[in-house]
Amino acid sequence: MSATPLTLQPRPAIDPSVDHAIQAIVSGASTDATCTTDLAVGPWDFDTRPGYGPGSSMGDVIPTGAPRQGELPQEYRDASDDELDARVRAAKATLGDRVVVLGHFYQREEVVRHADYVGDSFQLANAAKERPEAEAIVFCGVHFMAETADLLSRPDQAVILPNLAAGCSMADMADIDQVEECWEQLEDVLGDLETPDAEGLVPVIPVTYMNSSAAIKGFVGRHGGIVCTSSNARTVLEWAFARGRRVLFFPDQHLGRNTAKAMGVPLEQMPMWNPRKPLGGSTAEVIEDSRVILWHGFCSVHRRFTVDQIDKARAEHPGVRVIVHPECPMDVVDAADEAGSTDIIRKAIAAATEPTTFAVGTEINLVQRLAAQYPQHEIFCLDPVVCPCSTMYRIHPGYLAWVLESLVAGEVVNRITVPADVAEPATVALERMLAAKPNGAVK
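Below the sequence we write its predicted structure tokens.
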């Protein structure tokens, strides 16, 4: 008797939309959990209120004077998803090469589908340079990303942020006044910070993560420092150590700690700098013995991931491959199989040749999109609670339709411009980063 062939049923299609998942939770159609049901309403409901909006950063304290978005015209608030989709497509078709739309990996699916380029903040800033014919660059991301695009684009190109309230709580944790005060206190302890010693090393080199304001990038550029991304942080730290005795790293403590630890820097030589305390809460002796001074900043998305979540994933999915972002806390990175930038996470999944279960520790919009894009794998977010980046989620198709149709009408709204006195040193810091390539790198 011959065996009956086994027919495997195809896995059902996965919906890449986090908004659909949230709507299902709120309506009771799904038993999953979300960090707040406020995510189900339009972000314009929160535009007039101080705060980052509902989502992972809603508990963070927003600085006084942070940008707020003016009232979105009623027609965009009332439009259906299908109508907004059609209006965005029509406006893009009318504008043609005059506009380029950039979409960050963490943007909601309903926005990303209209992007000409999708990537991380630095990839997108570079992508803008590939469209020199574009009169306008619509950056679907957050404020510091639009600033970086303005720094790297032509002066006559307008960089537009669809919702001015889309800031970044981590970037806001390194305020320029606090950083200037930190520098003065370090000078009191370490002496003149601009003068090299007998070995040609200055006392400290400032390094800022891409996720920082243009003002902070300008500070770094003025003081001999450099910008880094999550994918080249090690190369940048090597560059800094070749020029200085120690590094002041901001705003994300976790990326700094995880990178320096992997390079062999002892934890006891990585003191935290709390800007609300004298000497950051350290002593002169600790500062003098330090190798990396870590700013007291963090990403609220990546701080949600825990070792318990990893343990649970391993218990429920034997053989699971755990990949997390280096903005996660050190114990989470240590417990994971791999850590890497959003682009490294994406490439690791794309390169897997056999069906694999992936537990991913990064923003839910990217994870959900990867799960839909690679149905041969089982891909899920380590955090079972659906809680997107608060500020990324404030970019809604309604805002995208509004800024594009304004361009069709000949009006530029929500333009982001970095003042020249900040732009010049900030661009220097970015150019240093571009020149600092890993050994063997060809790009």
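The chain has a mean pLDDT of 94.
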